[in-house]
Amino acid sequence: MQKKYLRIYNDLVKRIQSNSWTIGDLLPSENELAAQYDTSRETIRKALDLLSQNGYIQKVRGKGSVIINRNQFSFPVSGIESFTELTEKMALNSRTIVHSIKYLDPKNESMEILKGNPNEKVWNVNRIREIDGEKVILDKDYFNDKYIPLLTEEICQGSIYNYIENELGLVIGFAQKEIVVENPTEEDRELLDLEGFSNVVVIRSQVHLDDASLFQITESRHRPDKFRFVDFARRVKN
């Protein structure tokens, strides 16, 4: 059963998206929302925190929660979350199109870093991510088959991370990420809705298991108008 703060969050998202409030409006106070939803202020705070994290509101001290412009989707840079997890959390209307699943040619040296020895194989999965009917992300994933021995269209249609953690019993540990802006490739132009756009935002990641084994390299290519990439930073005084 879905937790209450998530039900409240999803209901508030629907109300915001249906223009119950417009950009710049204040949400009702925590006390008012607690009364409306017959719950505690702590539960309301959790729902509001999630609205803030996902770019729906800005909390302003002394005023409350202000509705902000959310034409761009907020994707966390520092976390490790699957597209399915992100879109479910953000209540986005999304679809995944599995474009291809195959082993790389053994002679292809571009992913040698993934192999512990020459006999290991590398999966290549290309998926197109559609949000609100527009193809805006091309995910190009590479997996060492020592850790991921089987990938099917059904698995790739859903969350591969869910399969890795819950079916294979592996623990995903950490990732190193690089973000760059590049000119679109012919493949980008063919598979994404890029008319009028002259660049793409590319996130390249190396993802490790909790024992530090490298099991995945991914290249996520985004249409630039739909996303803002967010992170949290804390200053440490020397």
TrEMBL record:
<keyword id="KW-0804">Transcription</keyword>
<dbReference type="InterPro" id="IPR011663">
    <property type="entry name" value="UTRA"/>
</dbReference>
<dbReference type="InterPro" id="IPR000524">
    <property type="entry name" value="Tscrpt_reg_HTH_GntR"/>
</dbReference>
<dbReference type="InterPro" id="IPR036388">
    <property type="entry name" value="WH-like_DNA-bd_sf"/>
</dbReference>
<feature type="domain" description="HTH gntR-type">
    <location>
        <begin position="2"/>
        <end position="70"/>
    </location>
</feature>
<dbReference type="InterPro" id="IPR028978">
    <property type="entry name" value="Chorismate_lyase_/UTRA_dom_sf"/>
</dbReference>
<dbReference type="InterPro" id="IPR012770">
    <property type="entry name" value="TreR"/>
</dbReference>
<dbReference type="InterPro" id="IPR036390">
    <property type="entry name" value="WH_DNA-bd_sf"/>
</dbReference>
<protein>
    <recommendedName>
        <fullName>Trehalose operon repressor</fullName>
    </recommendedName>
</protein>
<dbReference type="Pfam" id="PF00392">
    <property type="entry name" value="GntR"/>
</dbReference>
<dbReference type="Pfam" id="PF07702">
    <property type="entry name" value="UTRA"/>
</dbReference>
<dbReference type="InterPro" id="IPR050679">
    <property type="entry name" value="Bact_HTH_transcr_reg"/>
</dbReference>
<keyword id="KW-0238">DNA-binding</keyword>
<keyword id="KW-0805">Transcription regulation</keyword>
